[in-house]
Structures are given as structure tokens and as C-alpha cells.
């Protein structure tokens, strides 16, 4: 993630932060927390107006991030990401639960599982998340890559179950392994 300035508070963001705070305070397991935070994001989607204009600047194939909020106790962080056409992450998994909502455009997510012997990735499907879609997940089993395969920019908001400013990244591990075909499917997950 590149840009880490914190956004100024807005009513939209304050409502979302309060709803996420309440979901996290339930102190349930990671999967249950991700589900509750996804519900909070669906109920309180933020406006694109709270994002800096330069979030969508950049060359084809690049992306920029902008920190919107870090909870004082370190229990969660919110980051907006602007994806230029052709932008793609490396295949990775996460250190904690994550929820994301697409605020503009379409964000594609390629899902993978690790082979039993750990020497390859197996394609598990592709999800096209359109504007308004919200999805969440928790380790283990969260191996994926994210990309913008469209002709225009995309914007997504990510909520992670940790203080990213403190640990530096949501990524636990990158996977530079051969990829084997699997039963690809196109769906929206929750």
C-alpha cells in the first residue's frame, strides 16, 4: 500500500466506524466478525466524496491506497484503494479477517487453494465484485489476488482486523507457486 494519509472524519465515515466498532466489540471469532463487519458496510456504505481526488490518479496497472481510519485500540483499520485498469496484486493471504466493499467499478478476485503437498496453487474460482458488492473472509483459506480487469478505474474500501499502521501490511504471505486449473466459477460471495 502506498499512500497512508488519514482522511478527515465525515458523517458517512463516522457512521461506518461506529457500526464496525460495534461489530468488532461482539468479540466473536474471525469469520463471525467478518460477517458482522460486512453487514455494517452494507448498511453504512461511505460516499466517494470522502476520498481524496488523487486516489484515482496513476498509470494503467497501478493502484493507490489511502488510510481512512485506524481504531485507537488497534482492533481494525479502514483503507480505500483506487485501482487503475490492469492493476493486479500478487497472490497472497492475510494476517487477519478482511471485509471489502466496491464503491465504484468492478473488482475481480481470483481465489486459490494450496495443493496438499504445498507446491502449487489450485484455482478455486473467480468473483466479479461490482459497485455495491460487499464480501468478507478470514484465514485460513483466504488465498487470492485482486485485479481490475475493466476499462475504467475501480474503488474499494477494505476493513482489516488490525492496525495496519503498526504492522505495515495486511499480507501474511505471498505465493509465488505454479497455478493449476480448477473448477472456475463466477459468483459473488458474502
Automatic annotation (TrEMBL):
Cross-referenced InterPro entries: CDO_1 (IPR010300), RmlC-like_jellyroll (IPR014710), RmlC_Cupin_sf (IPR011051)
Keywords: Dioxygenase, Iron, Metal-binding, Oxidoreductase
SUPFAM superfamilies in the cross-refs: RmlC-like cupins (SSF51182)
GO MF annotation, one: dioxygenase activity
CDD domains: cupin_CDO
Pfam families, sorted: CDO_I
Family statement: Belongs to the cysteine dioxygenase family.
PANTHER family named in the record: CYSTEINE DIOXYGENASE, CYSTEINE DIOXYGENASE TYPE 1
Protein's recorded name: Cysteine dioxygenase family protein
